[in-house]
Design brief:
Blueprint: E1 3-11, E2 22-29, E3 33-41, E4 47-52, E5 68-73, E6 81-85, E7 88-91, H1 93-96, E8 98-108, E9 114-115, E10 129-130, E11 132-134, H2 141-151, E12 159-162, E13 165-168, H3 182-252, E14 254-256, H4 257-277, E15 287-295, E16 301-304, H5 307-311, H6 314-318, E17 321-327, E18 340-341, H7 350-359, E19 363-370, E20 382-386, E21 392-393, E22 398-405
Parallel strand pairs: 1-8, 6-10, 19-22
Antiparallel strand pairs: 1-4, 2-3, 2-5, 5-6, 7-8, 8-11, 9-10, 12-13, 14-16, 15-16, 15-17, 17-19, 18-21, 20-22
Length: 406
């Protein structure tokens, strides 16, 4: 049992409701005796409603079985002024676990209240004072007719007035005096208790519905957030895929710097040969080629800029790394039968490398690599050469040397 709900209607001796009366609902336990469970005040109709939770007994304490309830009027008297005890009790079942008590209509005694006496006739003023009694309903002829008809009898010579229709009862052996309002009171109390139980059940269901609606709103909010996270994850996935595709495309455009330099040098040499054959009277004395793109960390390969990079604007192209090749084609001396070993010019400056190659009968083709300075080489020193040192070249051939630039 989680909750006790009780109701009562307090009437005066004149039959009118008593409003503004402060009352207390007390519960009796085997361990502590009478204790306050709830308090309330009668309304304009004389009805007071109580609701409270009985305290669970301490571990190992005396349990409370079938609690006794009573309505007590707040007053300055030493003995409690008890208005009502007992009442019609209903239980909402193991699901709701609400005990409902209806004390019905109670007539509040004023000057006629009396102290409860024991069976031995000893006064028990300190126990409590009876200040209220169950009020008997004033029965009309229509009510009596209903009550007697339910029992199948009417009193001898009784005339019932039912909305203008006069009915004379047939004489029977059952006197009208045997008809009591107790049955009507019991039915009324049962109906009121049932109504209170249904109201409590409805309140409990409304509470459950509100909780379910709140839970549904929380689930909908969680679903919305999960959808937003999924959308963000899909966007990140698409961006990562695009970046990976761009990296693969850049990797596919990478070409060795040595191959690019050799190709440019061969084209320049072929152009000079063609011009000599045509007796053009001039030749390429010096050529500089600047490449823009992304150089690999080891400095061996470069992915050249594309038209898409140029469409991004000059700033995008200027932000790319650059490699500059200086080509100085020289006339080839008469070929000799024996080849010339290529000297090692790594670590030399441009002028020193040019002198070393000239001493070996070879020409120098200069290329630069920005950011080529490392712990081994400084800016201005040769960091790479092709062909490699020791290889044989005919005299007059060109050796490409890459120097570290800032």
């Amino acid at each position: 049992m989680q909750q006790i709900s009780a109701t009562a209607r307090i009437l005066g001796a004149d039959g009118n409701p008593v409003p503004g009366l402060s009352l207390v609902l007390e519960v009796f336990s085997l361990a502590d005796g009478w204790a306050q469970l709830a308090a309330g005040e009668t309304g304009r109709d004389g009805i007071v409603n109580f609701s409270g939770r009985p305290e669970a007994p301490a571990q190992g304490g005396t349990p409370v079985h079938a609690p006794a309830l009573r309505v007590v009027e707040k007053s300055g008297d030493t003995a409690p002024r008890v208005l009502a005890t007992g009442g019609v009790v209903t239980y909402g079942g193991p699901r709701l676990r609400i005990l409902t008590v209806d004390f019905g209509e109670v007539e509040r005694l004023d000057t006629t209240r009396f102290a409860l006496r024991s069976t031995q006739g000893q006064p028990q003023d300190r126990v409590h004072v009876v200040s209220g009694l169950p009020r008997r309903v004033d029965l009309s002829m229509a009510t009596l007719t209903r009550a007697v008809t339910d029992r199948g009898v009417l009193a001898t010579g009784t005339v019932a007035d039912l909305g203008g229709v006069t009915s004379t009862a047939t004489p029977t052996a059952t006197p009208l005096a045997s008809v009591s309002a107790d049955r009507f009171n019991a039915e009324l109390l049962t109906f009121t208790a049932r109504e209170t139980t249904l109201r409590n059940e409805l309140s409990a269901r409304d509470l459950l519905l509100a909780e379910n609606q709140k839970r549904l709103a929380e689930l909908e909010d969680s679903a919305t957030k999960a959808a937003a996270r999924a959308e963000a994850a899909e966007k990140e996935k698409a961006e990562a895929a695009a970046e990976a595709a761009a990296l693969r495309a850049a990797a596919s455009r990478e070409a060795p710097l040595q191959t690019i330099a050799l190709s440019i040098g061969k084209e320049a040499a072929a152009a000079n040969t063609a011009m000599e054959a045509e007796a053009a009277g001039f030749r390429i004395a010096k050529m500089q080629v600047s490449l823009k793109g992304s150089v690999t960390p080891d400095g061996d390969r470069i992915a050249l800029a594309t038209a898409a990079d140029a469409l991004k604007g000059p700033a995008a192209v200027e932000g790319l790394q650059g490699v500059v090749f200086d080509f100085v084609p020289d006339r080839k001396p008469a070929p000799t039968p024996a080849g010339t070993p290529v000297p090692d010019v790594l670590g030399l400056t441009e002028s020193a490398a040019r002198r070393a190659l000239a001493a070996a009968g070879l020409a120098l083709s200069v290329a630069t690599r920005p950011g080529g300075a490392t712990g081994r080489f400084s800016v201005g020193q040769a960091v790479q050469q092709a062909p490699a040192p020791g290889q044989q070249l005919p005299p007059g051939e060109t050796v490409i040397v890459v120097f570290a630039a800032p």
